[in-house]
Amino acid sequence: MILIISTCKEKLHELEFVRPIENILKKNRISYLTKHYMILNKNDVNKADKIIICGTSLQDFDYVNHIDKFSWIKDINKPIFGICSGMQIIGLVNNRVEGKKIEIGFYKEKFSKNFLNIKENTEKEVYHLHNNYIDFSKLNDFEICSKSGRVSQAVKHKNKKIFGVLFHPEVRNKEIILNFASA
Amino acid sequence: MKLGLLFSGGKDSAYAGYLAKKYGHEISCLISIKSANPYSYMFHTPSIHLTETQAQVMNIPIIIKTTLGKKESELKDLKKAIKEAKEKHKIQGIITGAVGSVYQATRIQKICNELSLECFNPLWQKNQFELLENLIKNKFEVIVTGVFAYPLNEKWVGRKIDNSFISDMKKLNEKYKINPAGEGGEFETLVINCPLFKKPLKMIGKRVWSDDNEKSWRAEVILK
């Protein structure tokens, strides 16, 4: 079972940032359970085989005020995939701070390393929707698989199955979510 | 949260507004853009003048702005309208009916971000047949007011979205890849009744015409 974690302050935003991910899993007959991070408990995390932390809207930074709710990320050894704010949360629990970079719409990103079945040197058109980013280059446990300037676009942990993308794969790169689900 | 609904009069924006209300938000105003360009990439055009009538039956104030409909200048006009809604109605966010159009969604997201407004797209990435079925289930009465893609013809203009419409649309989707929700501009719709309306509107007449050698058809709808 995949645990989908919502980071949306407003429930209406879940239709935009969580529901599309649920639909991708549902269409591929992958079981999931969705919970908001504010009501997540230890049992939910323990029961999950894998975890997806979803993104939220451009103006929603509420998760930053509750980063302690994600401290379990450092303690568990389960596959985690962070999308946009989900990726930023992975950086924040590792004591990084957010930088400012507005990217909205389609961009081409090049993968310099293999990432969830995407071969190195592949270029992908991706959908961005963010005001902030985390520079993962200072985190020795992570390798950057795609970056534009200082902005880490896709990262993976060197020893654990922890992945993060700054873009929204549920819009144009659904295969990345399925690659994580089957990895 | 007090929200402004970017309203075209068609099914997607009306259904998005319905969901926002269902989730506990207040629709403080409607925002409609009348484009002089019938081929606008951004704005739904055929029955946009009827949004005022729809606003009356919803009992919600409406801000209507006119644009020449040139590709990027129409965005400046949209931004002015949203800014006015923010100042006048103290809205904290915008609701849109974007389903899959990155072109539209990206531009509205940018405007809202520049104005520090939330942007809600509750239909985003939704399965388009499911969307049509949801409209019927939630008692939306929707009619087609224009068709702009082969093989849609004048017979489709004035049709209601019902189970027979969905069944016919499925066949066209399989054979011609017609977008079943019409988001690619294949067809345009008008909501004549839905849970946001205090009373239904009734179509008492329509005039259907083609001005491009029958490649597309439009309807002028008379409502009561």
Description:
The complex is a heterodimer of chains A (183) and B (224). Chain A is of the alpha/beta class. Chain A has one domain: Class I glutamine amidotransferase (GATase) domain (Rossmann fold). Chain A has helices spanning 14-17, 19-27, 42-47, 85-93, 169-172, 174-182, and strands at residues 2-6, 32-36, 50-53, 80-83, 98-111, 122-134, 142-148, 151-157, 162-165. In chain A, the strands form two sheets. Chain A has a seven-stranded mixed β-sheet with strand order 2-1-3-4-9-8-7, sandwiched between helices. Chain A has a two-stranded antiparallel sheet with strand order 5-6. Chain B is of the alpha/beta class and 224 residues long. The two termini of chain B are 32 Å apart. The chains are: A alpha/beta (183), B alpha/beta (224). Chain A binds chain B through residues 10-13, 15-16, 19-20, 23, 57-60, 102, 104-106, 127, 129, 131, 170-172, and chain B through 1, 19-20, 23-25, 93, 102, 106, 109-110, 112-113, 116-127.
Helices and strands, with pairings:
The complex is a heterodimer of chains A (183) and B (224).
Chain A: E1 2-6, H1 14-17, H2 19-27, E2 32-36, H3 42-47, E3 50-53, E4 80-83, H4 85-93, E5 98-111, E6 122-134, E7 142-148, E8 151-157, E9 162-165, H5 169-172, H6 174-182
Parallel strand pairs in A: 1-2, 1-3, 3-4, 4-9
Antiparallel strand pairs in A: 5-6, 7-8, 8-9
Chain B: E1 2-6, H1 11-22, E2 26-35, H2 51-58, E3 62-67, H3 73-89, E4 93-95, H4 102-114, E5 118-120, H5 128-137, E6 141-147, H6 163-176, E7 187-193, E8 203-209, E9 217-223
Parallel strand pairs in B: 1-2, 1-4, 2-3, 4-5
Antiparallel strand pairs in B: 6-7, 6-9, 8-9
